[in-house]
Amino acid sequence: MRHSLVLLLLVCFLTSVLSADEDTKPARTKAAGRIQAAGTVLSEIQGAPDQRIPEEVLGSAECVAVVPSLLNGGFVFGGRYGKGVASCRTPQGWSAPAFFTIGGGSFGLQIGGQASDLVMLIMNKGGMDHLLSSQFKLGADASAAAGPVGRHAAADTDWKMRAQVLTYSRSRGLFAGLELAGAVIKQDQGSTREFYGHAVPFKTSLQGAVEPPKGSYPFLSVLAKWAQRAAK
């Protein structure tokens, strides 16, 4: 009971910190700002000479989800919360963006607080089906694993078969024991209505049923540049 209360307080704290940070921006810019930040994060990660997502891996991803600032904090028991944006491949190109939240608790060797830029690659149809459901849990509904890093993936790695979701993080601040297993991902309905002007289901945007608004391109143009299909 005590552990559950501590965990609840941590998640509430992280939620309030992130909300306070976003509330300093005009309401109309929050969703658009997240798209801009997501594009910047992916561009900076892929612009690193040797510490990047291998082109074979990113080029094979069915969907790409970016959380520009995932907040983590705790002392043994931890919590995390963040807001992100995702896009999937369609016959017409990358889909209109879908907004989501990620949150949950964790237990393990961890102390302090940290803000991390998180990138999740959905690698196959099974993982994509979970994403399209608009709510799923990493490690339970969809298998997740840390992805390989470098200009190219080593020939002897089994990244294609390891998990439905490959995860990457770029950290700033002090923290130890970041673990995504158990994190819940679900649609951010508020940001969706803000960006599109009305409710848009995950499937509608991610399957290409709506035209990407002009404000989508700071993120979609980066995807088009870096996430080309890997050569067979």
Number of domains: 1
Uncertain regions spanning at least 5 consecutive residues? 1-28, 107-111, 173-178
Element-by-element helix/strand order: HHHEEEHEEHEEHHH
Morphology: globular
* Tally of individual helices: 8
Number of strands: 7
Brief digest:
This protein is 34% helix and 32% strand. It has 232 residues and is α+β, with helices and mostly antiparallel strands. Strands 1, 2, 3, 4, 5, 6 and 7 form a seven-stranded mixed sheet that branches.
Write up what this structure looks like.
The chain has 232 residues and is an alpha+beta fold. The protein has one domain. It contains eight helices and seven strands. It has helices at residues 2-23, 30-46, 55-60, 125-132, 159-162, 189-196, 202-206, 217-226; strands spanning 63-90, 93-94, 98-122, 135-137, 144-146, 165-174, 184-187. Strands 1, 2, 3, 4, 5, 6 and 7 form a seven-stranded mixed beta sheet that branches. Helix 2 runs parallel beside helix 8. The longest helix is centred in the first third of the chain and has 22 residues, at 2-23. The radius of gyration is 17 Å and the shape is globular. The model is unreliable at 1-28, 107-111 and 173-178 (pLDDT under 50).
Question: What labels would you give this structure?
Answer:
alpha+beta, disordered N terminus, 232 residues, globular, seven-stranded mixed beta sheet
